[in-house]
Amino acid sequence: PKRIICIRHGESIGNVQADAYATIPDNAMPLTEQGRLEAREAGAKLRDIVLPGESVFFFVSPYCRTLQTLEGLKEGGDFNDSNLHWTMEDTNIREQEFGNFQDPVQIQKDMHTRSAFGRFWYRFNNGESGADVYGRVTLFLGTLYRWMDNCNRRKFDNYVVVAHGLTIRLLLMRYFRWSIEDFEKVWNPHNCALWVLEREQTCGEYQLVNPQDVKYGDTGPLPDWLCRSSTDRSDASPQLGLLERIATSSNL
Q1: How many folded domains does the chain comprise?
Q2: DSSP labels for 175-230?
Q3: Rounded to whole angstroms, how far apart are CA atoms 173 and 246?
Q4: What is the distance of C-alpha 251 from the center of its chain?
Q5: What is the pLDDT of residues 147-168, one digit of tens each?
Q6: What is this structure's pTM?
Q7: Do the beta carbons of residue 13 and residue 32 sit within 8 Å?
Q8: What CATH number is attached to the domain comprising 140?
Q9: Residue 203: what pLDDT?
Q10: pLDDT per position as a tens digit, 128-150
Q11: Is 164 a catalytic residue?
Q12: What's the rounded Cα separation, in Å, for the pair 176 and 59?
């Protein structure tokens, strides 16, 4: 495929009303009206990237807010041709689990503890750590690769992943082989932000082409060397290398 495009969901009720998670399951959290508008606007931006006649395969998290975002993307970009535009839900790109209904006071304490313990490693009570989600996105990449490489399946020009902020960051961490330190410096994409990976003709790998839209630490956009795949980056990060070996041997 020419491109892999990651899109975060639009603004949800949980983004503007943190205590909503105490009564609304995370998987059922809907978009706000602003979020629906953002999704339609993102669809128009996606249409500017996808050329006329190009095919698109949408992978989407099965959460309410991501499914509603996909609806807005299709509406805003007119991606409703069943011959060109396919969709598949994948639970492996769902949001990090924070432990069922979330008590606002307790979750604030957990967030503080996570900052001290390490954002990648901290596991929420009855929930997941970033490392757990990393394992899931490794599984998802296996699914994506099989769709891309299987000669018995239809080929698509574009693969669009509609998911969640942390999930998208971990997906890029896995593909570009970021260190844990670098991952923790990358900020979440804004609601309905598009992170676009395009295929390099010379080597066949993908490069992030809009690093200016990715905030890195306090210094600004994502450095160029983190926008490309590096075969030796895991060697510079023993922890990441170990995670990759475990995930690859057990899941792929």
Answers
A1: 1
A2: HHT--HHHHHHBPPPPTT-EEEEEE-TTT--EEES-GGGSEETTTEEPPGGGSB--
A3: 16
A4: 19
A5: 999 888 899 999 999 999 999 9
A6: 0.90
A7: yes
A8: 3.40.50.1240
A9: 85
A10: 999 999 999 999 999 999 999 98
A11: no
A12: 20
pLDDT in the model for residue 234 = 47
DSSP state, residue 90: -
DSSP strand pairing (158-163 vs 56-60): parallel
Contacts of 150 (CB under 8 A, 6+ apart): none
Active-site annotation holder among 11, 38, 85, 95: 95
Structure tokens at 221: 């956009």
Backbone torsions φ then ψ of 246, nearest 5 degrees: -65, -50
Which CB contacts under 8 angstroms, 24+ apart, belong to 227-232?
227/176, 228/176, 229/175, 229/176, 229/177, 229/205, 230/176, 230/177, 231/177
178/169 Cα distance (integer angstroms)? 10
Looking up tokens 């990648």, which residue turns up? 120
Domain that holds residue 135: 3-251
- Residue 112 is classified by DSSP as H
Catalytic residue (choose from 9, 11, 128, 164): 9
Q: Can 128 be counted among the known catalytic residues?
A: no
Give residue-wise pLDDT tens across range 44-77.
999 999 999 999 999 999 999 999 999 999 999 9
Q: Which helix (H) or strand (E) holds 85?
A: strand 85-89
